[in-house]
Batch of 2 targets.
Target 1
Amino acid sequence: MSKEELKKELHKLIDNTEDEELLSMVKEDIVAYQTKANKNFDDLSDLSPEDRAELEELATEDIHKDTITFEEFKQHLDEWHSGLLQRKGSKTK
């Protein structure tokens, strides 16, 4: 599909849409894309070198670093639930 055909199709879809929320979302997306494309800005430009380094470190961190097994989760949940019941029981006495 050529650029001109795509534009015509988009215009037709927009013209036949009555959903104001959808139209607003499409407008926001197009404006945001054009702004970013025209400025070629670095979204991280306002970060200090330290903050940028920390963010890059977090981005490359092992995604499983802070995970636990389902069995461990159930054990933590049981312990938490038992603690709640004990506190509730001590308040009623």
Target 2
Amino acid sequence: MARRRLIGKVTSNKMMKTVVVQVDNSYRHPLYGKVVHRSRNYMAHDEKTCLPGDTVEIVESAPISKNKRWVVQTVLQRAIQISELAPEGSA
């Protein structure tokens, strides 16, 4: 059986080797036809030292802890940090 893969944005990295990934999903309501937007948070094991704002792909895995069942496989896009935007020599 193939493992599920989700793409989401890192919202928190305050735990050791764990990140919280927010996965957004939108679908059309079956009766009313309105587009419904939903988001869900997943705790994922992180060996790649992701930062908040990074876009990552997470893969389903065997349970690692009480709440962790996902692993960060790849970092698709790094977030732009404030220190990168400030020119050198400015305070």
